[in-house]
Amino acid sequence: MAQKPIVMEQIKQVLQLHKEGVSIHEIVRRVGISRNSVRKYVRNPGLEATLPDKELAEKAYKNDEQLFKTERLHQLIQYFKTTDTELHKTGVTRRLLWTEYILLHTDGYGYSQYCYHLKQWFKQADLAMHMEYTPGDVMMIDFAGKKQHYVVKETAEVVVCEVYVAILPYSGLIFCYAVPSQKTADFADCINQMLKFYGGTPTTILCDNLRTAVTRSCKYEPVFTALCHQLSAHYNITFSATRPYEPRDKAMVEKAVSIVYNHIYGPLRNETFFSIEQLNKAMLEKLLVLNDKAYKNSPHSRMYFFDQQEKDKLKVLPTEVFSLKNVRTLTVQRNYHIQLSEDHHYYSVPYQYVGKKVEVQYDKTEVQVYYNYERIAIHPRNTYTKMYHTLTEHMPPNHQHMHQIKGWNKEDLLAQARGLGSCVEQAASLILESNFLVEQNYKSCFGMLMLKNKYGVLRLDAACSRVLQGPKVTYTMIKNILERGLDKLTNPPEQSTTPTHENIRGKENYQ
Fold first, then answer.
1. Confidence at residue 187, expressed as pLDDT on a 0 to 100 scale
2. Confidence of residue 264 (pLDDT cuts 50, 70, 90)
3. 368, 356 in Cβ contact below 8 A?
């Protein structure tokens, strides 16, 4: 094995005893270091017990550093660098790597020295960084490696379940919850229960690269599942993933899992539960005790730090609990609608997205349409009403115009005409009664009212007054009067009248 380092106090003691005339043999017995080490220090003329520690260390350890930095050790360090990841591979051991090392360097270190230097090298290469966390900023989550279980009373079947663990790194407040699996629905339930437990949402949720959350792992830009995008939109949070094979990125939750093993798994190991609800109830009781337990060498607990310093930093929860939605990628049809094939209903989107691929998220109550992660339409979902669900603002301008005309009725048009003048109202009333085709009457009346935009209200009312002198009122007649300026004439043309006599019949005779 490698020689243990000699501390500064031992060197000073060797030098002081030698100065007092004590023999080397006696110095070895008193100090407890080798005879060769004693000789090396007492024969060095530059060493004196009265020197400051720093200066004495530089002179005393100079030879040791030179020994450490020999060519043979340099070769060994280079070999460690080239085989850094080899020990992570299946079947690779330190003995195997040493054997390969000796084949390359026949004058290299023996196996025990090789292992010693390998351990020292790992200490230098695998340094850990202390992380500072901001209250309410990040929440770390993970599934425990060891599972819990409950027993089906009727069949005595043992059902294994996953345990979800979360922690707020700043206060250290821990949450755990048992679910049947790591599937999408159960993962969404875990998030809901976790945020309900904490009473708010953080800025970021940090997870590892589990399949339910990450579709493609990447050190710099992981791709998250549709579920995470739904959760992000609902709770106004951001999901982040650790680097692949870097558990220290979420070291706090890794430690939390170990704490859950000790304070929840252990105390419950001899109890039998007959449902997952019973298991979660028992786990919650132990969890509350754990969070109220004071930290070592501190009078305060996780719950104390959470209540005092972190709880108010969390964002407010939405009023509704997240509901898992179905997700479909659909193409916007030419009529600016997408079709849900499950119930054959159509939902409109803005007409600018015709032909685009959009993501549709829907549940029993709502349909949401997204394009490039931006919501462009939202509809209440009701399969018992009409098949087409269309919002006017989604239509192009010409379709909005037609929809507006189609949606009018006689009362609406007369109300608009009344606001433009009494003659306009009379003319509108006659136009609405002039044709058996009601929709055509509406279009004619609407066209007559729109003449005010070009000629003004006063001229329109004057034109209607003039046309009312005749036997018939139409949109075309009023338009011609305005175009020719006849409404500006002060004396309307005299109308020929038919003399009254007994052969004249009225319109009532032609019903």
1. 94
2. very high
3. no
Decide if 265 contacts 178 (C-beta within 8 A). Answer: no
CA distance readout (Å), 117 to 63, 76, 126, 475: 18, 8, 14, 101
Paired strand residues for 329? 359
Mean pLDDT lowest for which of 5-14, 62-71, 275-284?
A: 62-71
* Phi/psi at 47 (5° precision): -95, 130
HSE, side-chain direction, 13 A CA sphere, residue 97: 21
End-to-end CA distance of the chain: 124
Q: Is the pLDDT of residue 128 over 90?
A: no
Residues 104-116: b if buried by 16+ CB within 10 A, e if exposed:
eeeebbeeebbbe
| Six token digits for residue 44 | 């060095």
Distance from the Cα of residue 130 to its chain's centroid: 26
C-alpha count within 13 angstroms, C-beta hemisphere, residue 141? 26
Tokens of 367: 């349909």
Q: How far apart are CA 356 and CA 81, in angstroms?
A: 52
Amino acid at 411: E
403-437 per-position pLDDT tens digit: 565 556 677 788 888 888 889 999 988 888 776 55
Confidence band, pLDDT 50/70/90 cuts, at residue 298: confident
CB 373 within 8 A of CB 391: no
What are the distances in angstroms from CA 264 to CA 56, 129, 159, 256, 299?
53, 29, 18, 11, 22
Over residues 330-381, the pLDDT tens digits come to: 999 988 899 888 888 889 999 999 999 999 988 888 899 999 878 899 998 8
Tell me the C-alpha distance between 200 and 263, whole Å.
Answer: 25
Which one, of 360, 348, 352, 350, lies nearest residue 388 by Cα? 348
**What CATH superfamily classification does 138-313 receive?**
Ribonuclease H-like superfamily/Ribonuclease H (3.30.420.10)
